């Protein structure tokens, strides 16, 4: 039979065991929490950069966006010179072949290649690039936004163009339009290229990467505005005419670019602004084809159709 002193001893042993168990549990919890913290802050998850993306200052984001936005056209110009050199070396390429090579180098490589290469340089893998850009099959709602966005662009351009005419400001001509007017047989190629080449290539760079880079540090409105400004400005190189005319046309192009950016921000799906961009350009080239082909029947309307192509955001 155990006396009072024996009961005290058993109680003390039991208490010590419980305390030790509690300490071990607390230590295990701390270890688990430390592991989760390390995983969340330093380890890369599938599809993300090898290091966690930390929002930097707006100035750095804007500088990166401007650099990428300007570098694309520079690569396109250099690539175009390469196509021109090949044309000279072989004694003249067929116009169709020359245009296809120019589209591949000046769009797929200069814009699409730069965008993908930049994201790969930042550490994104293939699935991470698709996730960052938001590349997925559009829904019926998305397709509705493409049509709705195009209507908004048309109405906006009608208003802006009317204001420009009332002010008596001159506009510049688009080099692609001039080439198409001189060679109407290539217009169908341009129409197809708007959907398959120009829309996707330019949107992956200027909406997917330039606007996306800005959104890492800026709210939606300024990011869209800055990306649209960069996109509109780089079209100076695609225009012909005086400086004032080029600047006026760049200012006009700023508005459809805003719609591209807003649609991308809303849907978070790069395919949507790419389709909208392609649709807008394709419609204008289709109007140009009609006005050039039936210029005798249309009369003065043909000149108006040709003038529309200066508003192409390509």
Jot down its keywords.
314 residues, 1% strand, two-stranded antiparallel ribbon, endopeptidase activity, 2 strands, transmembrane, mainly alpha
Description of the structure:
With 314 residues, this protein is mainly alpha-helical. It is 78% helix and 1% strand. It is built from 12 helices and 2 strands; from the N terminus they run H-H-H-H-H-E-H-H-H-E-H-H-H-H. Strands 1-2 form a two-stranded antiparallel sheet. Helix 2 (58-89) packs antiparallel against helix 7 (187-215) and helix 8 packs antiparallel against helix 9 (243-267). It is globular, with a radius of gyration of 29 Å. It starts with a helix and ends in a 6-residue tail after the last helix. The model is unreliable at 1-16 and 26-51 (pLDDT under 50).
User: What is the count of helical runs?
Assistant: 12
Please tell me the total number of domains.
Answer: 1
Which outline best applies?
globular
Task: Report the C-alpha radius of gyration, rounded.
Answer: 29 Å
- Give the N-to-C terminal Cα separation: 99 Å
What structural class do helix, strand and pairing data support? mainly alpha
Task: Return residue spans where pLDDT drops below 50 for at least 5 consecutive residues.
Answer: 1-16, 26-51
The share of residues in extended strands comes to under 5%
Largest sheet: 2 strands, antiparallel
Task: Order the strands across the largest sheet as they lie in space.
Answer: 1-2
Secondary structure: helix percent: over 70%
What's the total number of strands?
2
Order of helices and strands: HHHHHEHHHEHHHH
Average pLDDT, all residues: 83
